[in-house]
């Protein structure tokens, strides 16, 4: 169960306090748009292995919608931000490299006795 | 009887306290501290279960939760619990135990015939045979399988016990209370981190206390006692035994399953307690799992894991046999020979697949005069329902030349140890093949990451691959310090130092002997519970199931209740060999939660009965309850379905309520209807986007019916909208739709049109709303005094606010019944008083309350649609003859409705339906054309969406969606009903009653 931080009220809470809303930054296809544009808006969703921008609502909290950048591979939440944007913030567009190869034992093994 | 209680020993049992229990109705006795399995063994009962597929006789293989064979049914009736592992359940006084998967008895089972047929029941047999011919599946195979299969029996009746869930938060959760877990916990706790230590069994110390590890110069048991006492003294540490950390989920959410041992002693104790813990770091110190060896006859009762054999001797004072052969590919199993020798049990031989020089453990064994057969293998086990002996051969050969025969009544086997990587893997940690150790161990470079991108599971000790005691302890100490530092509570404490004999390298052994042919391989079991043999996995590989995930499902290897704890590694090694591939590239199947099964009781806990779901009641609920209301659940609301009088059937009550409303006056509690206030300079523009109709042009004081669509163009809610003032509208929604509509509005305002000046508030529960309908409705209201509700002052589809009697009321003149109708809204607290006042005022006109069913009948008589009846998420406003917004530039759903399929004239559209005989059509019935579709289904061209008996008209009426319906007035449709009969119904106008609407004016 994910942990998310609502950028509107600042609360960090468990996933069950939020309601998911699918992919973020969709562009609404209104009347008169071509069929493929409407199809893309309604049905076509990316399923990236990597950073995914998604909508969440702080349903059992402040009630506000917000957006999250979350890596589907590591489940790392790179950040949450206002729903009042049309593009993801530049600093959240890509997962920063994580030094996973570092020796996990290194810091503790050096600890003084 | 071979298995028996020893004269001495048994560190976990109390020899002064007898415990009585029954097994298949036989009265037996054990000692306090026994597990069910140890007590049965002490009574000579090695045969404890039957396998799933072949019904082969089986005894316990383990002494812990990995057990595949010794599954029991505990208790009977409502408390019955199937598939309990006898090896992990504590024996208790009066326990009633039944064996499973056998008929008529455990010793004599007719299902065993499947075993005789094993040669013709290979892997994939079910898939290959039972698919065809189809009737055979239904009438022959399925009943056969259902009778023979099925582990255990479901409880009968409602579970009388209590289960609870507990939320906890910790910096560090330690899974496993062995010496590694305790060392890690001690190290983690020094800096003040909140630490929870969970031990699956009832005892601290794990294997080390049995295996004789020496820690800081003391026997492990003394160190464990001291360390547990020290941990208990720390306020930041919580210790729990009989609690299994069973699942690690995303971002450090873990589930632990506690079986309180005082359960049943008093009302306070739940039977199970599910811990829902948010952990900063999880230290997986849950040990390793010993692997069986694959030799012919390795499933005969009496063949057990070497570690289990010494656990039974040391912990429970139980010898699993009188003359035991130990077979191994590693040094650890020599400890079993030594433990048995210490307990006075004869060890006939140690059979070691390795040719290497003896290490210190082997030297000790040899010093006791126990013969060691090096480079040797068990060719086969003799015996059927119990071991009578083994034949030996060279391990490097094919088993053709038997080198020795040894009489024995038990075999202790060890194929090496696999780190229990489950908890590391649950949330995505990857494993790496360690060829030297012949094991998969956690890959430190690919751990499960939390919300911050940091790895949150830290494997420790044997679970990390540090199988040798001294290494395991050092590793666990480091893991504890690291977990504390990473959660912001660094601390220091000296590492405990352990001593243990050096161990020689393991020799990987996947079949024994190495070159065994089909004769032997077809008797080598990999998965004991599901009867998967070496030959089954090889067959899967030959048939092209090369992926380990496919081979698993084809053979059912690892799919039993033990989830392959013993069989996974051996199985994939055999698969790799059959493919001619390496183990590393073959890979493992996925380790998914839970580690040990969770009961439904623990998952549901208190969420049952009245606490299953919140129930919403209107302010007038108590009045309804006191006046015969039969309840209808609508979402979380309870609405009166009908008010049934003494001696009356619900159907008669509905008819009475309809007729009374039509003839004089009725009242309905309409408080559950959603009431959403929309306000702001852009509110009109916003509502024009939400409804298919236009709301911005609605004049103040007027009401308008509106329909909302999804972006797909399908109807999802409807209701009356009232214009309150220049910038305010009140939107009524369906009872079940209020939250969804409110959420829908918020979504668009927050995420799409955030610059529009609009705010919305859900007022549903702030107002009590009462519908008064019928020819005398106005007279009743006017009797209250106050507001002018005359036809001139308040026309149809208008609203007014004012004083109505003693009430501050908003009165809407709307009608869902077709009668002169008003809906009166007052503050919720005033609802009951208004209701009482209306009932009193209406007495002279015979006023009666009516319920939702009468409401539905009356709206159907008028041809009004009901969202959820006439709509199912695939119906457009045009299908229902509702405003389609064709002239509007844009609204939600507009673009969806432009699609050709939604404008197809062939679409099914709303009509009325009347049977030729006046009878009532079944709700949901389909009409057939007489033709057939391309897939040989009967072609349909309509369906009944609402159907009622109309007391007003004295016959059945129905609404339905029919292909080109409105163009086909007068046509007769055929509705098959049941297998043989059919009903005929004519297409008519959906407005059955008062089509001119004259009754709206009373
Ligand atoms: Zn919030």
Automatic annotation (TrEMBL), chain A:
A Gene Ontology BP annotation from the UniProt entry: tetrahydrofolate metabolic process
Organism domain of life: Bacteria
Pfam families: SoxD
Gene Ontology molecular function: any one: sarcosine oxidase activity
Protein name: Sarcosine oxidase subunit delta
Species assigned in the record: Rhodobaculum claviforme
From TrEMBL, chain B:
Matching InterPro entries: 2Fe-2S-bd_N, FAD/NAD-bd_sf, FAD/NAD-binding_dom, GcvT/YgfZ/DmdA, GcvT/YgfZ_C, GcvT_C, GCVT_N, Sarcosine_oxidase_asu
Residues annotated as domain SoxA A3: 521-606
An annotated Gene Ontology molecular function: sarcosine oxidase activity
Domain (FAD/NAD(P)-binding) ranges: 171-429
Residue ranges constituting the Aminomethyltransferase C-terminal domain according to the UniProt record: 909-994
GO biological process terms on file: tetrahydrofolate metabolic process
Membrane-spanning segments: none
Domain GCVT N-terminal, chain residue ranges per copy: 620-883
Keywords per UniProt: Oxidoreductase
The organism's place on the tree of life at top rank: Bacteria
Protein's UniProt keywords contain Cytoplasm: no
Residues in coiled coil: none
Family named by the database record: Belongs to the GcvT family.
The protein's name in its UniProt record: Sarcosine oxidase subunit alpha
Record organism: Rhodobaculum claviforme
């Amino acid at each position: 169960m994910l942990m998310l931080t609502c950028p509107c009220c600042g609360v960090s809470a468990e996933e069950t306090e939020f309601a998911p809303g699918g992919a973020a930054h969709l562009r609404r296809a209104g009347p008169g748009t071509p069929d493929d544009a409407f199809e893309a808006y309604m049905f076509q969703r990316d399923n990236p292995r990597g950073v995914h921008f998604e909508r969440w609502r702080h349903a059992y909290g402040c009630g506000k919608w917000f957006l999250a950048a979350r890596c589907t591979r590591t489940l790392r939440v790179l950040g949450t931000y206002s729903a009042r944007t049309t593009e993801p913030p530049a600093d959240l567009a890509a997962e920063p490299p994580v030094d996973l190869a570092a020796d996990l034992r290194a810091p503790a093994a050096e600890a003084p006795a | 009887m071979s298995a028996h209680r020893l004269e001495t020993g048994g560190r976990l049992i109390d020899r002064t306290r007898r415990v009585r229990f029954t097994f298949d109705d036989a009265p037996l006795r054990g000692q306090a501290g026994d597990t069910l399995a140890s007590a049965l063994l002490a009574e000579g009962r090695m045969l404890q279960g039957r396998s799933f597929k072949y019904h082969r006789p089986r005894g316990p293989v383990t002494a812990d939760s990995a057990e595949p064979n010794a599954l029991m049914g505990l208790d009977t009736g409502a408390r019955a619990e199937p598939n309990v592992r006898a090896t992990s359940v504590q024996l208790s006084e009066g326990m009633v135990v039944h064996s499973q998967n056998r008929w008529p008895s455990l010793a004599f089972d007719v299902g065993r015939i499947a075993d005789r047929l094993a040669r013709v029941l290979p892997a994939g047999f079910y898939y290959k045979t039972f698919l065809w011919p189809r009737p055979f599946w239904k009438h022959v195979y399925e009943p056969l399988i259902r009778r023979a299969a099925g582990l255990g029996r479901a409880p009968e009746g409602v579970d009388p016990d209590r289960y609870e869930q507990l939320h906890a938060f910790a910096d560090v959760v330690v899974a496993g209370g062995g010496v590694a877990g305790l060392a890690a916990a001690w190290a983690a706790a020094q800096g003040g981190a909140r630490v929870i230590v969970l031990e699956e069994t009832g005892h601290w110390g794990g294997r080390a206390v049995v295996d004789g590890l020496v820690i800081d110069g003391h026997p492990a048991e003394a160190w464990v006692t001291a360390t547990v006492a020290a941990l208990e003294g720390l306020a930041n540490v919580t210790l729990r035994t009989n609690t299994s950390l069973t699942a690690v989920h995303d971002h450090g959410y873990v589930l632990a399953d506690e079986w309180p041992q005082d359960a049943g002693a008093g009302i306070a104790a739940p039977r199970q307690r599910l811990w829902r813990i948010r952990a900063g770091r999880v230290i997986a110190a849950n040990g390793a799992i010993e692997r069986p060896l694959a030799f012919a006859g390795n499933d005969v009762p009496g063949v057990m894991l070497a570690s289990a054999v010494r656990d039974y001797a040391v912990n429970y004072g139980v010898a699993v046999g009188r003359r035991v052969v130990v077979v191994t590919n590693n040094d650890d199993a020599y400890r079993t020979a030594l433990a048995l020798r210490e307990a006075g049990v004869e060890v006939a031989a140690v059979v070691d697949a390795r040719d290497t020089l003896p290490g210190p453990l082997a030297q000790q064994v040899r010093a006791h005069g126990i013969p060691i057969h090096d480079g040797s293998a068990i060719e086969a086990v003799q015996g059927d329902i119990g071991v009578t002996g083994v034949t030996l051969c060279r391990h490097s050969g094919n088993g053709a030349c038997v080198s020795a025969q040894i009489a024995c009544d038990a075999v202790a086997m060890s194929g090496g140890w696999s780190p229990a990587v489950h908890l590391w893997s649950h949330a995505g940690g990857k494993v790496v093949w360690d060829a030297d150790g012949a094991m998969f161990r956690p890959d430190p470079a690919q751990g499960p990451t939390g919300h911050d991108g940091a790895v949150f599971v830290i494997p420790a000790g044997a679970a990390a691959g540090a199988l040798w005691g001294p290494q395991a302890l050092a590793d666990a100490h480091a893991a504890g310090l690291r977990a504390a530092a990473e959660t912001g509570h660094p601390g220091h404490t000296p590492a405990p130092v352990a001593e243990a004999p050096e161990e020689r390298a393991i020799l990987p052994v996947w079949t024994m002997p190495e070159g065994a042919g089909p004769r032997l391989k077809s008797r080598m079991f990999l998965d004991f519970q599901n009867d998967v043999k070496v030959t089954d996995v090889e067959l899967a590989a030959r048939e092209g199931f090369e992926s380990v995930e496919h081979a698993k499902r084809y053979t059912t290897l690892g799919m039993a209740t033990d989830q392959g704890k013993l069989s996974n590694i051996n199985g994939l090694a055999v698969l790799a060999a059959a493919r001619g591939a390496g183990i590393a590239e073959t890979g493992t199947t996925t380790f998914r939660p839970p580690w040990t099964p969770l009961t439904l009781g623990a998952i549901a806990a208190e969420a049952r009965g009245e606490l299953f779901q919140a129930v919403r009641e209107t302010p007038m609920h108590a009045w309804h309850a006191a006046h015969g209301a039969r309840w209808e659940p609508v979402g979380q609301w309870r609405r009166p379905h009908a008010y049934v009088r003494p001696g009356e059937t619900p159907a008669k009550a509905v008819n009475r309520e309809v007729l009374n409303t039509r003839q004089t006056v009725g009242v309905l509690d309409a408080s559950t209807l959603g009431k959403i206030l929309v306000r702001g300079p852009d509110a009109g523009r916003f509502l024009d986007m939400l409804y298919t109709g236009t709301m911005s042009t609605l004049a103040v004081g007027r009401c308008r019916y509106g329909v909302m669509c999804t972006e797909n163009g399908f109807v999802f809610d409807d209701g009356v909208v009232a214009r309150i003032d220049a910038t305010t509208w009140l939107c009524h929604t369906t009872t079940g739709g209020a939250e969804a509509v409110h959420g829908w509005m918020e979504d668009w305002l927050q995420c799409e049109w955030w610059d529009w000046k609009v705010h919305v508030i859900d007022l549903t529960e702030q107002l009590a709303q009462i519908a008064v309908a019928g020819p005398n409705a106005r007279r009743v209201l006017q009797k209250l005094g106050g507001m002018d509700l005359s036809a001139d002052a308040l026309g149809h589809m208008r609203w007014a606010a004012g004083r109505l009697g003693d009430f501050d009321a908003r009165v809407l003149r709307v009608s869902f019944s077709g009668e002169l109708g008003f809906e009166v809204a007052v503050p919720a607290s005033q609802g009951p008083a208004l209701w009482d006042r209306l009932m009193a005022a209406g007495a002279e006109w015979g006023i009666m309350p009516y319920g939702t069913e009468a409401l539905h009948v009356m709206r159907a008589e008028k041809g009004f649609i009901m969202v959820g009846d006439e709509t199912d998420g695939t119906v457009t406003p045009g299908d229902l003859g509702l405003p389609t917004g064709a002239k509007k530039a844009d609204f939600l759903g507009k673009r969806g409705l432009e699609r050709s399929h939604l404008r197809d004239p062939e679409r099914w559209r709303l009509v009325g339906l009347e049977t030729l005989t006046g009878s009532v059509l079944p709700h949901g019935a389909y009409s057939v054309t007489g033709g057939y579709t391309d897939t040989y289904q009967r072609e349909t061209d309509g369906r009944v969406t609402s159907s009622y008996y109309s007391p007003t008209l004295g016959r059945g009426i129905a609404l339905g969606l029919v292909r080109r319906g409105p163009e086909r007035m007068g046509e007769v449709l055929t509705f098959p009903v049941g297998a043989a009969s059919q009903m005929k119904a004519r297409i008519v106008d959906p407005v059955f009653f008062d089509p001119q609407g004259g009754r709206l004016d009373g």
